[in-house]
């Protein structure tokens, strides 16, 4: 019997929405677990008895079921807040419900011995920006001169030691936590990579509150988004310097800059593949700078990064289909 694919994400994930029909078209009906509707819309059971283990999931609205022994591949896409059947849980009840749900669900999923795209332990190991920079240097990449510190004097000394500009770049999210609180409680929508002005340096004592990351600003010829899915590598050349809005931070999608397919030098491709494989991952989305002198500079890797926009901008990159095919090969 052919093994099945389990997709773990949330109901707002367009990536999962588009991969599901591709899998169905290839003869595989996946089981989708939307965490923002779990456990409200699902039943879970895990059993241990006389040396045997088993478990299953059931989607209540559709009555779709999957046994753990049927699963050959898991795509862990995006997290979400859990949903419970009772809407009036107290603060303590809600906190406990979340903790127990986490134990029940991941106690089941982490027991699976199958192919994963985005195994939670591997993704967690790969998400730390400081460790990424160290690993990239070990592979031969140049990385920007960087300091992460909550010591204002050390940040000032770093600034004085860099010949050009420096930038502030959030290590966790450019939303600065706005996505974690109710809209009425948000103080700012966030901040992207930002060149540090003299006015900001005058207020640098504020970093004493928490450690912040500062890097030398690297002049760019263009940027690269390198997406690795299984054995396939897709390199997108991003003409970020064509628009003032993307010169410092390429993430302003309102700017209609050019994206095009490109080929990496063999050594750079080797380093990118080795970087992702070193974590035991089947997926990675790496951001690189190419300087005016043609040097490749590593910025970061996104172990569960977005990739649909790359396919939309470069239609010849069949990323969704490659993802589906990789899951099916892994399940087989």
From TrEMBL:
GO cellular-component term (any): cytoplasm
Domain MvdD-like pre-ATP grasp: 4-123
Top-level taxon of origin: Bacteria
Biological process annotations from GO: SOS response
Pfam families: ATPgraspMvdD
Signal peptide interval: none
UniProt GO MF annotations: ribosomal S6-glutamic acid ligase activity
PANTHER family, alphabetized: BETA-CITRYLGLUTAMATE SYNTHASE B-RELATED (PTHR21621:SF0), RIBOSOMAL PROTEIN S6 MODIFICATION PROTEIN (PTHR21621)
Official protein name in the record: MvdD-like pre-ATP grasp domain-containing protein
